[in-house]
Amino acid sequence: MMKKMKKQLLFIVMLGLIGCVKETQEIKAVEENLKGNRVLMIIASSNFRDEEYLVPVDILKSYGIEIITACSSLQVSTGMLGAKVTPDILLTKVKVEDYDAIVFVGGTGSSEYWEDKTAHHLILEAISQNKILAAICIAPVTLANAGVLNGKSATVFFTEADRLKEKGANYSGKDVVIDENIITANGPQSAEKFAQAIVNLLSPKILPVKDEKR
């Protein structure tokens, strides 16, 4: 009886070790696949949402992804919770072809891009070049106003749900929604899941992308 239990225990331990090795190999494969990728994070000139910038930046950098921060100003931007970020490039100087993903960070200040023609142009270019396009919190309104969410499943901070619906989006109350190359998320509590969705879309050959529409 004891021998049988020992064999069963050894089998369970071996399965666990195999699982750990497989997971480690997958992580390494993702990191190798993502090296050299560049992601543009677009923040407001003030009052961006700290977690929606800092959490994705930390996660994306952990995979070896280069982060470039764009803004309508090169002055230091202060987040709603006090984080200080110095942008790398003006929004007007961004060339979409230089990046693998374009990400709009939310926060109350991000409404400055809702009707911004430069932001809309970048969004349309991202779609035409088949880039990953992502927005979180109230920033999906910018995507909706640019016309790229019409007929798409998307989410947003609940206060702005009607703005998405008015532009033809299929609004979802989910934390994160993926529809083809467009990722939307509903707020700071979803920042980690949002970042992982970006990683998954950047590395589709290794990580299967879940259908998050419904």
Structure, described:
By secondary structure, this protein is an alpha/beta fold. The protein is 38% helix and 18% strand. The strands form three sheets. Strands 5-2-1-6-7-11-10 form a seven-stranded mixed sheet, sandwiched between helices. The chain has a two-stranded antiparallel ribbon with strand order 3-4. A two-stranded parallel sheet has the order 8-9. Helix 2 (50-62) packs parallel to helix 6. It is globular, with a radius of gyration of 20 Å. The chain starts with a helix and ends in a 12-residue tail after the last helix.
Q: Indicate the proportion of strand residues.
A: 15-25%
Radius of gyration: 20 Å
Global outline: globular
Kindly name the structural category: alpha/beta
**Reading side by side through the largest sheet, how are the strands ordered?**
5-2-1-6-7-11-10
Helix content: 25-40%
Average pLDDT across residues? Answer: 88
Total helix count? 6
End-to-end gap: 50 Å
